[in-house]
Amino acid sequence: MKLYNTLSKSVEEFKPQTDKKVKLYTCGPTVYNFAHIGNLRTYIFEDVLRRSLEFLGYSVHHVMNMTDVDDKTIKASRGKQQEFKELTKKFEVSFLADLHNLNIEKPTEITRATEYIEQIVEFVSDLLDKGFAYKGEDGSIYFSIEKFADYGKLSGLDKDGIKSGARVAQDEYTKENPADFALWKAWDEADGEIFWQTKLGKGRPGWHIECSAMSQDKLGDTLDIHAGAVDLVFAHHENEIAQSEARTGKKFVNYWVHAEHLLVDGKKMSKSLGNIYVLSDIEKKGFSPLDFRYLCLSASYRDKLNFTWESLEAAKNALTRAKKILNNHQSVILNEVKDPDSSLPQNDYLDKFKSALENDLNTPEALAVFWNMLRDDKLSAEIKKASALEMDKIFVLDLDKEVSDEIPASVQKLVDERIEARKNKNFELSDKLRDEIESLGYSVEDSGTETKILKK
Ligand code: AMP
Ligand code: ZN
Q: How far is Cα 120 from Cα 111, in angstroms, rounded to an integer?
């Protein structure tokens, strides 16, 4: 299995520390809002990573966190204890529902920052004892990036840009202003009722320390793989390395794997552009979460993926077509494109599929193999189905489910009205209703007294 490692900036052969056992940590959501489809692209990629490892015979211990205390969660609940609890719970539940609807496997373990305060306090105390951290005059505790010689090794930071002693209190900041970051934030008024009274003082953890404390507690000093999206390389993951390696003196992560962003109409998703979509937005337009999963699989995780409604429509059509071929025996429609390798027996498709995954999770290639397999008229319907189901261990597009051409209630109502109109020989109304039905994407065929409705 080959993976692109952000640390070495090259594609490497993946070798876990222990044979066939993988320690995987992925940064979970900040539960202050609904996850948007950009976030969800990253979780789909991480699901493909985990399932591919399992497909290739590894057993994976996957830990994911919930960031349920940070600047954003506190701000969203205006520092009110009750609101804070309800808010983080509500968005955790909605996030887990999204995972379920996208056929994303639940992590082996989910950890919550608020349940890790004790371990975080110990972690920060160790960094103070070792001289990597110091208390600022505001009472907050900062990590001194100057003290950690390797600072910047993940993101390729220009060390000359580092201003000695400069500090940043916010959880999020950019590579343009690297600075000592807060491990523990002393309470201030904006935090309201959200604080813990500990030996470090009255306050709360910074965001970055949360992931170091939780991942190492569950998986040990060195993880095999740590994944997230590219925006986390700096500062979050750079800071995780600094804290963890300063504490243990050991390498924190062997393979850093990052997914590229989802764009909407070629632009970054942002509130000001009004182009942030959540899963229910796409469902309201008649798409299923798995149409979106298909769309994500059609691009490499290392490429930006441009979301448009047209691309989602194309994904939906492709998925519907595949399901019809596999379940409704319409294999005849597939003969337009012939794969030069169509004489290969079934296993060669599966081998090619496996190779695509081993090649840095090349899902577009895996989908191409899948389609070539479906188009191979030398394969029986049974072999096609068996191979497709094997591939669906990674795709998880419910390829075994039949596509029902159920007529929606709104269309059925028009059909019934039209039958009634025809009975009454009101052909003007019947023609009008036909136009309406057709405008909704259904065709009407009358033969004798029977009326057939088909999806166009
Ligand atoms: P957050 O809930 O903000 O902590 O983000 C959850 C995950 O989604 C993180 O791994 C982010 O890096 C990732 N993410 C944020 N924006 C996008 C985007 N537009 N496309 C893909 N992933 C994103
Ligand atoms: Zn994290």
A: 13
Residues 326 and 431 in one domain: no
Report which bound ligand comes closest to the CA of 306: 1
Give pLDDT tens digits for 80-130: 999 999 999 999 999 999 999 999 999 999 999 999 999 999 999 999 999
pLDDT, one tens digit per residue, over 339-376 is 545 445 557 999 999 999 999 999 999 999 999 999 99
Closest C-alpha residue for ligand 1 atom 9: 229
- Number of domains composing the chain: 3
Do 251 and 268 belong to one domain?
A: no
The reported pLDDT for the residue numbered 412 is: 82
Q: Indicate which residue's Cα is closest to atom 14 of ligand 1.
A: 39
CATH number reported for the structural domain that contains residue 344 in this entry:
1.10.730.10
**C-alpha 55: how far from chain center:** 19
Last residue of a domain, one of 209, 224, 259: 259
| Tokens coding 284 | 């309201």
- Cα(206)–Cα(250) distance, rounded to whole angstroms? 22
203 sits in which H/E element: strand 201-205
The residue contributing the CA closest to ligand 1 atom 3 is 30
Report pLDDT for 110. 98
pLDDT at 345: 57
Residues 200 and 334 in one domain: no
**Boundary-marking domain end, from 259, 294, 326:** 259
33, 36, 41, 42: which to mutate for ligand 1, most atoms within 8 A of CB? 42
Q: Are residues 85 and 118 in the same domain?
A: yes
Q: Are residues 421 and 337 in the same domain?
A: no
- The reply to whether 21 and 75 lie within a common domain is yes
**Ligand 1 pocket by Cβ (under 6 Å):** 27, 29-30, 38-39, 41-42, 228-229, 231-232, 261-262, 269
Strands 180-186 and 253-259, bridge-based pairing = unpaired
CA of 334 relative to ligand 1 center, distance in Å = 38
Q: Is residue 403 part of a domain?
A: no
Reading the block at residue 349, the tokens are 């498709």
The C-alpha atoms of residue 236 and residue 239 are separated, in whole angstroms, by 5
Tokens of 153: 């090794």
Determine the Cα–Cα distance for residues 166 and 214; give it in Å rounded to an integer.
27
Is the domain of 8 the same as that of 103? yes
Q: Which domain holds residue 190?
A: 2-259
> What whole-number distance in Å separates Cα of residue 66 and Cα of residue 305?
25
The tokens for 366 are: 């895996």
CA angle 52–233–259, rounded 5-degree value: 35
Residue 327: other Cβ atoms inside 10 A:
16
- Evaluate if residue 189 carries a pLDDT over 60: yes
